[in-house]
TrEMBL record:
Location of the Mannitol dehydrogenase C-terminal domain: 295-477
Gene3D superfamilies the record matches: N-(1-d-carboxylethyl)-l-norvaline Dehydrogenase, domain 2 (1.10.1040.10), NAD(P)-binding Rossmann-like Domain (3.40.50.720)
Record keywords, A-Z: Oxidoreductase
Domain Mannitol dehydrogenase N-terminal: 38-286
Protein's name in the database: Mannitol dehydrogenase family protein
Organism domain of life: Bacteria
Originating organism: Roseicyclus persicicus
Entry GO MF terms: oxidoreductase activity, acting on the CH-OH group of donors, NAD or NADP as acceptor
Length: 499
């Protein structure tokens, strides 16, 4: 049964109206006027507000972390719309938890301001240079770190990075702004802030360090050495399924009695594992469920390979068969059976246990979470930016499987389904709209692969040497041909029957 009754007249979300929220809606018990900032968060989307900001809010509910409030930030023009929506409601957020059998709402208040979005990022630089800011955190997506796929290092040829190297005082990127702020702190005799990536990248802290230090080296060797020696970039693993907000979510929050222009729905599960390596202090997030450890790698490996790669196993098949959500994919007999077969035969063998959790048990947890019908997580959202997600989540497993001499038929099918999806039409003939920053290139490669499957694998930035691996290339070509000949449903059945 729902914990909240439908309310006819929604209450506008603001500090002044917190006391008038419907009964049953949790709200800040702390005085938000007394909060002071300690964190700047760049890339303030739904995930941050349902995850990192929630942990900070829960500390504040205990009377702790009052000097760790969050300043939201963005570096792209489209961030301005979110800024306007949040400032209009005093940066409050309604979080709606959706379990299979109930829903509940909580208004959180750990964020107290949203910095202006402007060319040159002056306001952001000034905020990060303030000694009160001790952590700068980011959720800028897996593909937002300017990594050169050929070298694994900073892509110094990218126009944004080239701009920031040539104009370090008026940078375009979040990383350029971080370097500029760290330069100001060093010049003022202050210590650095901790840079904390909260994106789904293996070794995300090490990647952030590499980008920030690498960019600094393009303009100031001394600053780069100082950041390398004095800064901190902890690795972390983050986990919570947070769908995008659309008309249904906006209607839901109004039904619950709250007029919130930017509500967030989420599942009833969170996990945050953080390397305990901070250079300027940190909130005690472990008091509210986070795990601090000196070894994040095992946790992130389990999560990225089973959950994130698992999302890619499901999403393209779902898109091709017009299955709208991940929960619907789990209810689809062939898609869910394919998911379990790929996981158990070709993913779990390359995942080690972590304290208290075996890979098979984690897979069972993920299956339950994915199957939650209350979470309307669309296959379109999950399939977005496959050109970053497949190289980041799926292909490392494929490389391990090839090196171990293990089976790769299932992983090759996953890649063939992605290629078939990027051809731009579903099985019912409807068009698939652009869903990747590299969509035109993907479409061209997918259509060329109809006659020559290797054309898809020759996308060097994605597959690199994998294109020359005969076991993978032959399996991929076979599945792609079968998809063209018999369709997605029949191909899934062929895989499940071991053909």
């Amino acid at each position: 049964m729902d914990e909240l009754m439908t309310v006819a007249r929604p209450t506008p979300l603001s500090d002044a109206m917190l006391a008038d929220l419907p009964e049953g809606v949790a709200r800040p018990a702390y005085d938000r006027a007394r909060l002071t900032p300690g964190i700047v968060h760049i890339g303030l989307g739904n995930f941050h507000r349902a995850h990192q900001a929630w942990y900070t809010h829960r500390l504040m509910q205990q009377g702790l972390a009052q000097d760790w409030a969050i300043l939201g930030a963005g570096v792209r023009p489209y961030d301005a719309a979110m800024r306007d929506r949040l400032l209009a409601q005093d940066c409050l957020t309604t979080l709606i938890e959706l379990s299979p059998d109930h829903r509940s709402a909580e208004v959180t208040g750990a964020m107290i301001d949203y910095l202006p979005i402007e060319d040159g990022n002056g306001a952001l630089i000034r905020a990060m240079a303030d000694p009160a800011i001790r952590i700068v955190a980011l959720t800028v997506t897996e593909g937002g770190y300017y990594i050169d796929p050929a070298t694994g290092g900073l892509d110094t040829t990218h126009p944004d990075i080239a701009h920031d190297a040539a104009h370090p005082d008026v940078p375009r990127t979040a990383f350029g702004a971080m370097v500029a702020a760290l330069g100001l702190r060093r010049a003022a005799g202050l210590g650095p802030f901790t840079g904390m990536s909260c994106d789904n990248l293996r070794g995300n802290g090490a990647i952030l360090r590499q980008v920030v230090v690498g960019l600094a080296r393009l303009t100031d060797q001394g600053l780069a050495d100082w950041i390398e020696a004095e800064g901190a970039f902890p690795n972390s693993m983050v986990d919570c399924i947070v769908p995008a907000t659309g008309p249904a979510e906006l209607a839901l929050v109004r039904e619950m009695g709250i007029a919130d222009a930017a509500p967030v729905t989420h599942e009833n599960y969170r996990q945050w594992v953080i390397e305990d390596a901070f250079c300027a202090g940190r909130p005690d997030w472990d008091r509210v469920g986070a795990t601090f450890t000196d070894d994040v790698h095992g946790y992130e490996m389990m999560k990225i390979r089973i959950l994130n790669a698992g999302h890619q196993v499901l999403a393209n098949a779902g898109e091709l068969l017009s299955v709208p959500t991940i929960a619907d994919c789990m209810a689809h007999p062939a898609i869910s059976a394919m998911f379990r077969k790929v996981q158990t035969e070709e993913i779990l063998p390359y995942v080690a246990a972590v304290p208290g959790t075996a890979p098979a048990d984690y897979l069972s947890l993920i299956e339950r979470r994915f199957a939650n019908p209350a979470i309307r997580d669309t296959v379109r959202r999950v399939a977005f930016d496959g050109s970053s997600r497949h190289p980041g989540f799926v292909l490392p497993i494929l490389r391990d499987a090839l090196a171990a001499g293990g089976p790769v038929q299932g992983l090759a099918l996953v890649e063939a389904l992605w290629a078939r999806m990027c051809a731009g039409t579903r099985e019912d003939g409807s068009a698939i709209e652009a869903n990747d920053p590299a969509w035109p290139d993907l479409v061209a490669a997918a259509r060329a692969a109809r006659d020559r499957p290797q054309a898809w694998l020759e996308q060097a930035a994605i597959y690199g040497p994998l294109a020359a691996e005969p076991r993978f290339a032959e399996a991929f070509a076979g599945w792609l041909a079968l998809l063209a000949e018999t369709g997605t449903g029949a191909t899934l059945e062929a895989y499940l029957q071991g053909r």
